[in-house]
UniProtKB/TrEMBL annotation:
The keyword Coiled coil applies. The keyword Coiled coil applies. The lineage of its organism: Bacteria, Pseudomonadati, Bacteroidota, Cytophagia, Cytophagales. This is Uncharacterized protein. Residues 1-16, 346-389 have a biased composition (Basic and acidic residues). Keywords: Coiled coil. It comes from the Bacteria. Residues 1-28, 346-392 are annotated as: Disordered. It comes from Fulvivirga marina. Residues 183-210 form a coiled coil.
Length: 1117
């Protein structure tokens, strides 16, 4: 549908300046993409630019704006000014043409003057963003490029420095290894290490110098100090090792025991190097470097202490002891031999004391380091230390109990469709064998699949959010969704996903709601299709889709069986269950991985011998007994002598119907033998001659069951029975049917106190029959009496035909019901059909026919547009006519989910030009979608612009057109021009709430006009409001069409609707309740797309504002 920025013409309220954010996103903390642009410009500001462009920088520095009360915070203004200075100086260097440079300078001067307002400044205001987009369209690209170049420079310097430190570590380790065999070589290596340390110090200065481009002096000093400290620590380590070479030679084993610590140290440095290479934000890089180096530095100090301790235990300082002994022994008169003995004992005592204290200190430091490590891992959510084999698998986590959990969850959250339950079971079986477990990290890379798995795991493993539970969810985003879904904090404590109860909820609700990929079970299993293979996209694209499809089909067959698969699932054992019991018996010592191998086979043999089990059945039975902690009871034998009563047989038949083992027709036929004599004949005749299955079922069931049995039936079935027995459907004995009808309504509608404020008929809702016509009805139609009666009932309900019309009684009196009714007997009915075709079925038609509203021909063809509309409206009426008004505020879409129909670049009406444009842009840029043109260079963008300048189009280059535009894959077809894609953009937003529109025929027409001559809201408008409220209550947005309140507009669809929008919430203000909507027909998100002024007020069954009338509501699946 067409859409422009003028689609919404409601009077806009003045926005609060504090919330006056516009199209281009910018942080309020003075940073762009992690760069402190305030500091970045400090260097640029001090450049001698005044010589070439007098006054421009001074205009920024000395602007009187700083003395005015700002419209946006002062800090943000300064950020924007500094950022513009960076843009100005960077862009100026890129312009080589003198004329273009002069033009650019004039625009800058003009822009700065516009920013300097009399009453207040305009930095960060609407004017600022509007002029920035108009005069400097490449602003964001230039700033981003500058930031990127700085980051790359820093990254190269830091990585080079880190590599040098790794070389220092490697040479230190090699020197220690050679100390016992070749002290000379070891010293030479240490000398080389000292040279590397000097090089590292120089590289530290170079890296710190790079920071002057973006960091503050304080950050620069912190960065340099962290590196200098760690390099100095390595210098101290080398000096310590040099002083211990001889000691290492004498006791090499003790020193080499420290080498694993040095290996661990190197590993930490490599991990840090990897983090540096992945980090894209330079501010975060500094924080990582400071945190990691603090820990690494502590490790080095601990390592030095270990060397000193080893060296100290070899030789206690005898000179010091001598001095102390001498002082203490001045007063002694013992012989020299006695003094020597005292001296020896004291040396031994002090040496032992020193050892003891050193050991205590070592243990204290290790404990402290371990405590800090655990706290750090908890804070950073490092991968869990819990191994897969440590996860307990008991009766509560056995396959059979987990299957029961899944089925129980499905009964709570599912819709009863056994295909969907079958696919859930197949998914869990394929992903984890019905066992909640954690993903294992792939280590070996012998095959291509193993290599690919290692590459994949490297992307998320370090975050701690690796595969867990029944569907092996990965990535933090999915854990956050799981937290919202279950109410359990699995983000802070990821291992909670391993709980079978939590895992079952995630698997069932996640697949129902489309949590994992956006695809839902209902997309592949519905009234129109069953797709076992493509359903794999719910979890993981097409990975092993055929295997999962085969599993799902097998489960579906079991679920359809007589016992619903109960015996199979109760006795289900996977191999992990067996390993669990074998391990508990002490016969299996391996990990519980569900894989059968030599150790498992050995354990199985020992288990069979222990319990004298002769075959596999006996083995499995004993496993179940031990796993569940009780003996299996034999199934009770059927008492063949007992004959069920008639009531028990009826109850048994109904139980079969509930399990989907028999359908409604079979149930009706099966009940005939238990019917009273007078009822059985009527039912038999209907079954054989008329095929009125719903009425057969109703009459047969109610005739042959007492009220206590009827109360066992679910309410939906009772409602269907009541509809079929309603007085207007007189196919059998009228008096008897009325009695049976009253029996059901007495159960389904218990007596209530009458309200004196309003008559009873205003609250009572009569449901329409869901039966379809067997042939055409209306002018020139077949007009079977039974079909005409269905249509008349529908027309009366919606007010198109008077309930007192004599034609209704005429048709009711015709027997048999296949009797053909003549056109002249249906004058009023045909007239009512035409009116419904105009105001309800309102068919879509081609552009050449858009001269007036479709008037209708008075004929309802079976399966035609009017018939489809009636079927859709019947469903909506039966489901929503009793809906209470939604009187709470609801918002279903975030601003970030807004979609514009207009892309960055050319937007066309013509399909042929659209195809030409898409092919040209994708080939020229190499991008998958023409919507990505904004990523290309300015030269390429200008080339595209010039190429299509003579084609009829509109060019959009606003920031929101880059970030929120519709992609080609989301359009109804590739050649559809974006200028007429409001339908597609609205439909895209609808999908974000999990809803899908059924189709053009499934709609509620709420407003109709004729060629701009005015219009009126329809008889369905009130039901439309109830439907919208009902969908919002269910968490689903509603896809609607609107009629523009203006003359001479282009009309589309049924001749009334001009544009499509998405209703995504409801709220109330001083003027009353209104629907909130997102507008796709604009390129400005905040100003128009998600504006707080996007309101459709609800008044007297009308939904409208000053710009739009709500004309059509598309029904969701």
């Amino acid at each position: 549908m067409p859409g422009t920025d003028d689609n919404v013409k409601a009077t806009k309220k003045t926005a609060d300046p504090q919330h006056n954010t516009r199209t281009r996103k910018h942080p309020a903390n003075g940073r762009v993409l992690g760069i402190n642009t305030a500091s970045l410009t400090s260097k640029v500001k001090n450049m001698q630019l005044g010589e070439k462009i007098p006054g421009l920088i001074d205009n920024i520095k000395n602007s009187s704006l700083l003395n005015h009360k700002p419209e946006v915070p002062q800090e943000e203004q300064e950020h924007l000014k500094n950022e513009f200075t960076v843009y100005f100086n960077t862009k100026r260097k890129l312009i080589t043409n003198p004329e273009q440079l002069e033009d650019f300078n004039k625009k800058v001067e003009k822009f700065l003057k516009r920013m300097d307002g009399r009453a207040h400044d305009h930095w960060g205001s609407d004017r600022y963003f509007r002029l920035l987009e108009k005069w400097f369209p490449d602003y964001g690209e230039v700033i981003s490029g500058k930031v990127k170049s700085i980051k790359e420079s820093i990254g190269l310097q830091v990585n080079s420095l880190n590599d040098r430190i790794l070389e220092i570590t490697a040479k230190t380790k090699e020197a220690m290894q050679l100390a016992g065999t070749d002290a000379g070589k070891a010293r030479e290596l240490l000398k080389q290490t000292n040279d590397k340390i000097s090089e590292a110090q120089e590289k530290t200065k170079a890296a710190a110098a790079t920071l002057t481009e973006f960091g503050t002096k304080e950050q620069q000093a912190q960065f340099a100090a962290s590196y200098s400290k760690i390099i100095s620590s390595y210098g101290a380590l080398v000096n310590t090792i040099e002083g211990s070479i001889e000691g290492m030679g004498q006791d090499i084993a003790r020193y080499q025991s420290l080498i694993p610590q040095l290996d661990a140290q190197a590993g930490k440095l490599k991990d840090f190097n990897s983090k540096v290479q992945k980090e894209q934000d330079v501010q975060a890089l500094i924080q990582i470097q400071q945190t990691e180096f603090t820990l690494i530095n502590k490790d080095i100090q601990s390592f030095i202490e270990g060397i000193n301790l080893s060296r100290g235990t070899e030789a206690v300082n005898e000179e010091k002891v001598d001095q102390e002994i001498k002082q203490e022994s001045d007063s002694l008169s013992e012989l020299d031999g006695q003094v020597a003995e005292v001296k020896s004992k004291e040396i031994a005592r002090r040496e032992e004391e020193k050892r003891r204290k050193a050991e205590e200190e070592r243990k204290r430091k290790e404990a402290e380091a371990e405590r800090l490590r655990k706290e750090q891992e908890a804070a950073k959510l490092k991968p869990s230390d819990k191994k897969d084999e440590d996860i307990e698998i008991t009766a509560e986590n056995s396959a059979s109990s987990n299957i029961a959990l899944l089925i129980s969850n499905w009964k709570t959250h599912g819709d009863g469709d056994k295909r969907k339950l079958a696919y859930i079971l197949a998914t869990v079986e394929g992903e984890c064998g019905f066992r909640s477990k954690a993903e294992k990290k792939q280590v070996t890379a012998k095959t291509e699949r193993q290599k690919e798995l290692i590459r994949l795991q490297s992307r998320y493993w370090s975050s701690g959010y690796y595969g867990r539970g029944f569907v092996q969810i990965t990535w933090k985003a999915n854990y956050e969704k799981a937290k919202e879904l279950t109410g359990v904090d699995v983000v802070t404590y990821p291992d909670k996903v391993l709980s079978p109860k939590v895992a079952a909820t995630i698997a069932v609700k996640g697949m129902i709601d489309g949590m994992f990929t956006g695809k839902k079970l209902s997309h592949y299993f519905n009234d129109k299709k069953t797709d076992w293979v493509k359903a794999r996209a719910i979890i993981n694209g097409s990975d092993h889709a055929d295997d999962f499809a085969d599993k799902a089909k097998a489960h579906y067959d079991r679920l359809k069986s007589k016992d619903g698969g109960a015996a199979y699932y109760r006795d289900y054992l996977n191999f992990a269950d067996k390993q669990t019991v074998l391990k508990a018996e002490g016969l299996y010592t391996g990990i519980i991985d569900g894989v059968r191998g030599p150790n498992s086979n050995k354990a199985i043999k020992a288990f069979k011998d222990k319990y004298d089990l002769k075959d596999e059945n006996a083995f499995n039975k004993k496993i179940r007994e031990l796993l569940h902690g009780k003996k299996e009871k034999a199934a009770p034998k059927e008492d063949k002598k007992k004959t069920p009563s008639a009531k028990e047989k009826v109850e048994a038949l109904y139980a079969q119907y509930k399990k989907d083992e028999i359908d409604m027709v079979q149930l009706g036929k099966s009940l005939i033998p238990y019917a009273s004599n007078d009822g059985a004949t009527h039912v038999q005749a209907i079954l054989e001659d008329l095929g009125r299955t719903n009425d057969n079922l109703a009459y047969a069931m109610v005739s042959n069951t007492d009220d206590s049995v009827l109360r066992l039936f679910n309410k939906d079935l009772l409602d269907d029975l009541a509809d079929a027995l309603a007085p207007e459907n007189n196919y059998v004995n009228i008096d008897k049917k009325r009695i049976l009808y009253n029996r059901i309504t007495a159960i389904t509608e218990p007596a209530k106190e009458e309200k004196t404020t309003e008559p009873e008929e205003t609250t009572k809702v009569t449901k329409l029959s869901a039966n379809k016509i067997s042939a055409s009805v209306g002018k020139g139609g077949t007009n079977k009496a039974k079909d005409v009666q269905l249509i008349q009932s529908f027309l009366v309900t919606f007010g198109y035909l008077s309930k007192s019309c004599s034609e209704i009684d005429t048709v009711k009196g015709l027997v048999p019901q296949n009797t053909v009714v003549k056109d002249e007997q249906l004058t009023e009915t045909i007239k009512a059909i035409k009116e419904y075709q105009k105001y309800g079925a309102t068919a879509s038609y081609s552009k050449t026919e858009q001269k007036s509203v479709y008037q209708g021909d008075g004929l309802i063809s079976k399966g035609g547009n009017t018939d489809a509309s009636i079927q859709s409206m019947t469903k909506v009426h039966n489901s929503y006519s009793g809906e209470e008004p939604l009187e709470k505020e609801v918002t279903l879409l975030k601003d970030s989910q807004w979609v514009s129909q207009f892309r960055y670049g050319c937007n066309f009406y013509s399909g042929d030009t659209e195809k030409e444009y898409i092919d040209y842009v994708t080939e020229l840029t190499g991008y998958e979608d023409a919507n990505e043109l904004h990523k290309a260079s300015s030269e390429i963008i200008e080339k595209v612009k010039k190429k299509f300048e003579d084609k009829k189009h509109k060019w959009f280059d606003m920031t929101d057109s880059k970030n929120h535009a519709l992609f080609t894959k989301d359009k109804a077809y590739e050649k559809k021009g974006n200028m007429v894609c409001c339908f597609d953009a609205a439909n895209k937003m609808l999908g974000f709430t999990g809803a899908t529109a059924e189709g053009a025929a499934s709609k509620i027409q709420t407003f109709v006009e004729e060629s701009g001559k005015g219009g009126e809201f329809t008889k369905q408008a009130a039901l439309g409001i109830k439907y919208i409220d009902g969908q919002l209550r269910q968490g689903k947005a509603v896809f609607v069409a609107v009629d523009k309140v203006e003359e001479g507009k282009v009309q589309r669809n049924e001749g009334t609707s001009d544009h499509f929008i998405i209703i995504m919430g409801k709220a109330k203000d001083d003027d009353g309740w209104y629907y909130k909507y997102f507008e796709p027909g604009t390129s400005y998100m905040k100003r128009t797309g998600v504006s707080s002024d996007n309101k459709l007020y609800i008044t007297n069954n009308k939904v409208k504002n000053s710009s739009y009338n709500l004309s059509q509501i598309r029904v969701n699946e």
